[in-house]
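Quick one: structure tokens for this chain, please?
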Amino acid sequence: MTGESNKSQVRVLIVDDSAFMRTALFRMIASDSDLWVVGTASSGAEALQKVPSLDPDVVTLDVQMPGLDGVETLRRIMAQFPRPVIMVSSATPNQAQITFNALEAGAFDYVPKQLSCTSLDILHIRDELIAKIKAAAESRHAEDRLSLPRKPPRSVDLHTRKVPPGPPAIVALGISTGGPKALQEILPALPGDLPVPILVVQHMPAGFTAPFAERLNNLCAVSICEAAHGQNVQPGVVYIAPAGSHMTVDRPTDSRIVICLSGKPEKQVHVPSADVLMESVASAFHSQAMGIIMTGMGSDGAQGMNAIHREGGLTVGQDEQSCAVYGMPRVCAEMGILDRVVPLAQIPHEILQATRYRKTSVS
């Protein structure tokens, strides 16, 4: 059924209780010559039997299964046979929350499935699924290479460029694969009286951004919401761009910032796009803009970070070691447009230092 492989192929195990889904996923994955489906499993218990014997490089795992569900299966895989796992999830609010639980439990990433047994809608996820499987396999090999003893990561000043004349008035952040886990680590480290707003483009399917914003809001001192068209931007608030809409800013006066949402493609692969957001912020705020590029596949954000850099704003990139996928920051680093490259855990410090934050005294 699975055929023969060569050593360079990525070995994949598919776990899903639906025979239709297993077949659909098998066909999509097997259509790429770099991937090899070594087996399928119809339950969590069967997956736990097959992982040690088949030794897949990557596992795709259904979120909702009878018996041992996806999250518990994931936890056992990570405890007994750790390797990258990609969750396959329906885009309902409940499954979105379960998917975020899976990311906390160690899942590499997720892909949405929006289909019925008579639908071929799942074919739209083929390219995303294949790209994420390859990125997951690459991350595993990178972890193996990085397992040797090494010095702790440190921040890197890439330029002797002068600090902008004043602190940034706004932060634009672009992030993709590995983003939910990364944002859940850094945003709770920010104080509620943060003197700037943060606008975030996190590549997510429809139905995920609102539950994600709500989840983050419950964890953080800063307020976090899914952005709305016409919303006035306030300091100390993080605005998550909704899936399916580009987010830009309008600055009718120096003291008023308004969010604009648009479904226009703008010739972008991703909607929302970090490029679209950052170019808007660079145009409106010039040297008062701060751009942050974090873990993710592809190059979205590179042109936007370049625009902020060109206008004299501050640009910060996440370092390779702390990225789930060192794609988006790598492109910016290779372009020479990053002022700072820092580990994930240091990004809140970079924001506070740039904005010259001083803790408000409590009487």
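The CA atoms of residues 75 and 126 lie 26 Å apart.
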